[in-house]
């Protein structure tokens, strides 16, 4: 799997991993700051962005894709930051190659299985767009709006709508993500905990990391630290990028 990625800056390597429906650009505000001091590798996961599509979509697959990319670049040691689903990919990297990770930073995601279906309206909207010939973005947004009320969410999704010779189409693999949704929301704890430097950053108003997850976090990441960003939701790195960047930089210096 030859992933699409962007490399910026010089120095020690830090890998940025986006979440569901995203792409490398989603963590651009973090990359802009980090590339001043690090070599930043921003990756499109399989079935997202400009990376290839596949029906296989386990966290082990996603993490191995990244390791293969880093091997191709001859990068052995690295730090890693993952947001949401990308946080689970980052945590899986710590099980596949713990000795290669210097710092593990997980943004608003816990190492647990989530049982509520959080994205049914989004999938319905994406499928609605696919049912129609789209000649301009405004048409796609109208179809999305039938199911996705939040204008900000619609604009986020539309960033992955690409113009082709035959019209517009989603860059991510809609049907592949739907077929693997249980895996995306699930989690398989590693046989051994990751004892390396680990930081969980939570949005105060988000429900992805809850107090009830503490025991599972500490069992799998015994040296984990936590930082809560006040008055932010799941997209805290976009809501308060300066704060999140400061937290990340301070942790990387440890």
From TrEMBL:
Gene3D superfamilies: alpha/beta hydrolase. GO terms for molecular function: hydrolase activity. InterPro entries: AB_hydrolase_1, AB_hydrolase_fold, Epox_hydrolase-like. The keyword Membrane does not apply. Keywords: Hydrolase. Residues 14-246 form the AB hydrolase-1 domain. This is Alpha/beta hydrolase. It comes from Photobacterium kishitanii.
